[in-house]
Predict the 3D structure of the following.
Amino acid sequence: MTSGTWLVVGLGNPGPEYAGNRHNVGQMVLDVLARRMGGSFTTHKARTQVLDGRLGVLPGGAPGPRVILAKPASYMNVSGGPVGALAKFYDVTPDRLLVVHDELDLPAQTLRLKVDGGEGGHNGLKSISSALGTKEYVRLRVGIGRPPGRMDPADYVLRDFAVAERPDLGVTLEEAADAVEEVVLSGLEKAQQRLHTGVGR
């Protein structure tokens, strides 16, 4: 489970006007991972920004697995094309794909790892599942909570995190990056156990 290349995709919309949106929290997590890997994103022909490097350290001190961080340069609802093209380019199978995305159905600051299952109305996931022809890839769900009052969820996800939310957001992004690192170093089951139960922390 810990050998071979991983493709880690952070979902969001392209452009500075969307960068701080709740919908772009997946890409924010990738920025944390890029900082840890000591690299920067470059443009790939598959309409993505990518960083190719090693993540984490294995027992004994060896560098962690090869990880391709990818931020699609397409809009969220058509993420599948770039993700499918990257998976083919790097010869990454769905079980080595980890998609980081915002999740309305989880309270803010909540993180959950899952594989397979439904997309919960998330258009980015629907596009990826359609392009790959499978739902059997890993997802890291980053909770953003439900909109207040009667606000349309579509409007809510395209709003920036409030100033009051940002200190907690910073912690959540680091914990999400920890979860990604745990998956690629130790495998999904151990990462789920640690994330969901606190065992091993």
